[in-house]
Amino acid sequence: MPLGNDYWAHLLESDAYDSFSEIFIQQEYLDYLPEKPPLRILDLGAHYGYFSLWIQSIHPENDVHSLLIEPSPNCFRSLQNLIKQKSLKNRFLFLPRAIGNAKRSTTSFYDRPHMASSCFSSSNNENLMDVSIISENEILETFAPPYDLIKCDIEGSEWEILQQYSQLLESSKYLTLEWHSWHNGGGGYQQLVDKLQAIGYDITKSSKPTPALEREGQVGLILARNLKF
Question: What is the value of pTM for the model shown?
Answer without folding.
Answer: 0.93
